[in-house]
Design brief:
Blueprint lengths: L1 E3 L5 E4 L10 E6 L1 E6 L14 H14 L4 H14 L2 E8 L4 H8 L2 E8 L6 H12 L7 E5 L7 H9 L4 E5 L3 H9 L3 H9 L13 H7 L7 E5 L7 H8 L3 E3 L1 H6 L7 H6 L4 E3 L13 H11 L5 H7 L2 H7 L14 E7 L4 H11 L5 E3 L13
Parallel strand pairs: 4-5, 5-6, 6-7, 8-9, 9-10, 10-11
Antiparallel strand pairs: 1-2, 3-12, 12-13
Helix pairs in contact: 2-3, 4-5, 12-15, 13-15
Bound molecules: zinc ion.
Zinc ion binds next to loops.
């Protein structure tokens, strides 16, 4: 039982009654995609076997793609919203995402991407200042891209700015190798791009330890992927309070192993879900599909835990009041008219495994049905 006032704010939540029927109408919070790249597009024939080869394809496409960034972002947003995502943690490579989200009427944090392996302290301060200039607090964020694409000075400047951060971290074995001894496919790519600074030397530590050395672990720093933690890294992450976003569709794209979701959950880490970009996800930006993928990857996770990762945990990781149905908050939710289960547990199991399409999106201004059982 849910009551909403004329402005779309929840004023009362009664106890979800469940139902004696085999089928029920169910309302869940709007899904939170905690890691997207709305300004990337699918790449014809993109390689899957090796991350660095894929990265080369993405870089090549970004260099040749001249048109329609805003159109592309809007198209990606529309597709994601249609499948139930009502909030985003987006890596904003163009500076256009924040406004596009605002116009589309969804919440989100636009982590403005900053890059540069050769960036010194002075340039780092300037880059960070430019990236944050004039942005509203509710969408403000920075994404120092990854340990192989930002200098320690740039990451430290991002930390000093006190913006919320998102960083790709420990995504691949190539990244671990590059930081450990400065060799491998990433070293070749950076040499080919001519971006490795003169005299650069590997830090000879894990990606997580490298981030920690720059002060870049903590509740306001979202760690993206964490697919390849080294010994002791999960403890460092857990004690720091950094949330972690995993992207099951991208795990499947690259045929990676199981990410350490269960280990992280056991350590009390806030784990949430994202799609990454359409360039590395056959399922597109569909968070219902991500929940189903995660359940296949980690079958021992409870359906309730998976639903929470795609909703409330995402809101927590982004520092936004989204992914929950709460008194006093705008109602952003998904309605499913005919869920084949009469219990909350059964309904959650079905919703997270079957990847159904929502029958209706309920956003703040729109009316919703009374007497709807809620999960
Ligand atoms: Zn990403």
């Amino acid at each position: 039982m849910l009551e909403v006032d004329a402005s779309g704010v929840v004023v009362e939540i009664g106890s979800g009654s469940g139902s004696a029927d085999d089928h029920a109408e169910v309302l869940i919070p709007g899904l939170v995609n905690a890691h997207s790249h709305l300004d990337l597009e699918a790449i014809e024939g993109a390689p899957r076997a090796e991350f660095t080869a894929w990265l080369r394809a993405v870089i090549a496409q970004r260099r040749t793609s001249d048109a329609g960034q805003r159109t592309l972002i809007e198209r990606n947003l529309s597709a994601a919203i249609a499948t139930g995502t009502l909030a985003f943690g987006d890596i904003d490579g163009t500076g256009a995402t924040a406004e596009a989200m605002l116009v589309a009427g969804v919440a989100g944090r636009a982590y403005r991407e900053v890059l540069g392996l050769a960036v010194d302290e002075t340039r780092a301060e300037a880059l960070v200042g430019e990236a944050r200039g004039g942005r509203a607090v509710e969408v403000d964020g920075l994404s120092p891209h990854a340990p192989y694409s930002v200098s320690p000075a740039l990451l430290r400047a991002a930390v000093r700015s006190n913006a919320r951060l998102a960083i790709h971290l420990a995504e691949t074995e190539e990244e671990v190798r590059f930081l450990r001894d400065g060799t491998g496919p990433l070293a070749s790519l950076l040499a080919d791009l001519g971006v490795l600074p003169d005299g650069w030397a590997p830090p000879r530590c894990s990606p997580v330890a490298w981030a920690r050395a720059q002060g870049a672990l903590g509740p306001r720093v979202l760690l993206v992927h964490l697919q390849h933690p080294c010994s002791g890294d999960l403890d460092l992450v857990a004690s720091s309070g950094s949330p972690v976003v995993v992207c099951p569709g991208t795990v499947r794209w690259f045929d990676r192993g199981v990410p350490p979701v269960e280990e992280l959950c056991r350590r009390g880490v806030c784990v949430c879900l994202g799609t990454d970009s359409v360039a590395s996800n056959e399922g597109g930006l569909d968070m219902m599909a991500e929940m189903a993928s995660l359940r296949r990857l980690c079958p021992s996770l409870l359906p309730t835990a998976v639903l929470t990762m795609a909703t409330a945990r995402g809101g927590e990781a982004l520092g936004l009041p989204v992914g929950r149905i709460m008194v006093g908050c705008r109602l952003d939710a998904l309605a499913f008219d005919d869920v084949p289960a009469g219990t909350t547990e059964g309904a959650t199991d079905w919703l997270t495994a079957a990847a159904p399409s929502p029958d209706r999106l309920v956003t703040g201004g729109n009316p919703c049905s009374p007497n709807v059982p809620t999960l």
